[in-house]
Amino acid sequence: MATMRAAIYSGITEIGIRDVERAPPPPGYAVVEMKQAGICGSDLHSYYGKWGQSETHASGHETCGVVVEVGDGVTRVSEGDVVAIECFSHCGNCRFCNTGHYNHCDSRGGVHDGQHGGFSEYATAHESGLYVLPKSMSYEAGAMVEPLAVSYRAVALSGAGHLDRVAVVGGGTIGLLALAAAKAAGAETLITVKYPGQARVAEALGADHIVNVMDGDAVGAVRDITGGYGMDAVIETVGTARGFDDALGMARRQGKVVLVAAYFEQMPINLSRVVWSEVTVTGSNCYAYSGMKTDFEATIDLMSSGRVDPTLLVTHRLPLDEIAEAFRIAADKTSGSVKVHVTP
After folding, report:
1. What pairs with residue 122 in β-bridges?
2. Is there a contact between 237 and 181 (Cβ–Cβ < 8 Å)?
3. Is the distance from CB of 124 to CB of 112 less than 8 angstroms?
4. What is the mean pLDDT of residues 67-95?
5. Torsion over CA of 37, 117, 285 and 232, rounded to 10 degrees?
């Protein structure tokens, strides 16, 4: 029996390396040799026990690797292809898939579906979630396609374009990449941050305005910048009542607020502003089609054209064997971490 190394949870804030079976791919799946994987905010939610943990299979979905084996019926990729991977699979046949909304597929499931994910030497993924990358793209950049696609969709759903004003609430990975996507669309941007490392990356990405929420009033800053008018669109990435309230306070009358955070608890929200200002509030769920191309395809194009460089977010790189330390660093924002990558 062939074996491989995989990082698996054993409890709250406990993750370590095990030797596990390396199984052949089921029909419709491919085995991908992992080259680089990022620790996502949702991985940290699992790390702290807010989301589920698997004690049998490796997680990890911000990934890039090389296809080394394909299962029966796989036609989307071939052995040797360098790929990025969506976090879920879809059937391609239901009403949502047929209308481009495959993120709401009737049969949506995890792209690994009981197989090992990116925090392992070899991940097994459904072919519906595999995207072949240009030969010129580095593994590090490939592992940033997935989070940038999340942010790209949020900005696309906001409708913001050239010369619009866009505010991003939160300076984590999704917030910073939403900033980058908004800049690529030609918008004037403001982002709220909490840590110096986030501010440095925001500056490198070309943010027009940066507000540290520890010592500044973001809503007041928007009023000053816009002459009291407000932002055309606001992307909320934090998932707190304050974040939502700030987003509503930043948006102009008939503006757009897009929610792309994880919300764990019910929150007291003053919705009167939604009524009197006619702000449109919508959610953004992963990625699908936001136009004629998938969000993954649009993201790969943004990166390969040089308009967005998401590798500016990668602050730490550790080997898979040091996964426990990688998670510790990712969870401690005072460490200066923004995006932590692991390499098998």
Report:
1. 33
2. no
3. yes
4. 97
5. 0
DSSP string spanning 153-215?
A: HHHHHHT--TT-EEEEE--SHHHHHHHHHHHHTT-EEEEEESSHHHHHHHHHTT-SEEEETTT
Q: What tokens were used for 94?
A: 């239901």
Show the tokens assigned to 50: 């807010």
**What are the CA-CA distances from residue 113 to residues 10, 46, 61 (Å)?**
19, 17, 12
How far is CA 158 from its chain centroid?
17
Q: What residues have CB less than 8 Å from 5, skipping those under 6 apart?
A: 17, 18, 19, 20, 120, 121, 320, 321, 344
For residue 113, which phi and psi values (nearest 5 degrees)?
A: 40, 65
Instruction: Give the model confidence (pLDDT) of 258-287 as tens digits.
Output: 999 988 888 888 889 999 999 999 999 999
Residue ranges of domains in the chain, CATH in brackets = 3-143+309-343 (3.90.180.10), 150-283 (3.40.50.720)
146/53 Cα distance (integer angstroms):
21
Give residues with Cβ within 8 angstroms of 214, minimum separation 6.
Answer: 194
Quick one: which of 38, 40, 42 has its CA closest to 142? Answer: 38
Reported in sequence order, the residue ranges of the chain that DSSP labels E, i.e. its strands, are: 3-11, 14-21, 29-38, 62-70, 82-85, 88-89, 109-110, 122-126, 130-132, 165-169, 188-193, 209-212, 231-236, 251-259, 280-283, 314-319, 339-343
CB 102 within 8 A of CB 63: no
Predicted TM-score (pTM) of this structure:
0.97
Beta bridge partners of 3: 21
pLDDT of residue 302: 97
